[in-house]
Please model this.
Amino acid sequence: MQPVTLDEELRWATQMLEAAGVAEARLAAEALLLHVLQRPRSFLYGHGLDYFTPPGHARFEELLRRRAEGEPVQYILGFEQFYGRNFLVSPSVLIPRPETELSVQTVLELASPLPVPSPLIADICTGSGCIAITLALELPRARVVAADISGPALTIAARNASELQAPVEFREGDLLEPWRDLAGGFDLIVANPPYVGEDEFPHLQREVRDFEPRTALIGGPHGTEIYQRLIAQAAEFLKPGGWLVLEIGYRSAARLRSLLTDWEGVEVIADWQGWDRVIKARKTSGETAARATK
Model:
């Protein structure tokens, strides 16, 4: 093989990915090349004329083939960044997305005025653990627990917690059930449950539809069925005045509002793209409930 420079290799790789219909082909090519080189992004700015060795090209070509077939870059690299930290990912877990940081920000805002010094927080459908771990690191006085129905997902979450030295407690099981011994004691519950409807699933991007875990995506025929069970459980598990924070699908807000008519402070929060992304609601306090019955 004739030696080629890194600039030439990148141009070829970008064209290959573009021909395969890959979005943001240049960024994907750069990320995969830097992974092969084990270099930071800044390396490319001063070394574009360096020659790329044949063994490196063979490895790079294999990664490009996987990306051209639709496999997400994050699964190829084995990590994704969330809230400024790197999280291990695999096909056992959803890839953390920037929009989910809105759930974290919402919880942090709600936690700061809580009257308890060490709030008890649950992250349900934790997946990679990105929400729970971020909250544990951002709120060092809080006790953060998490649950997921998937054992393989919890393996990834536990590895992330260990790598990032986050004191999160994990249990396997359906929604809040693994933490029934703490029912009635939670100050905050946050969840990013499956919310894709069965009719939506065939129309998802191939990177999502063909590679991310189906059980973490589909929330039932309409995409809101899991919320109905989770909201009912949260009413039981939260303290009076405790908060529920849910990431939602773009067409779910009206349905979820109807499930939260007995709650206070219900608010839908849009993400940076303007889509409905998070809904928060406060469990009716004892005083409020007493006034309502008079």
User: Anything to note?
Assistant: The CA atoms of residues 82 and 96 lie 6 Å apart. Residues 93-293 form a domain with the Rossmann fold fold (CATH 3.40.50.150).
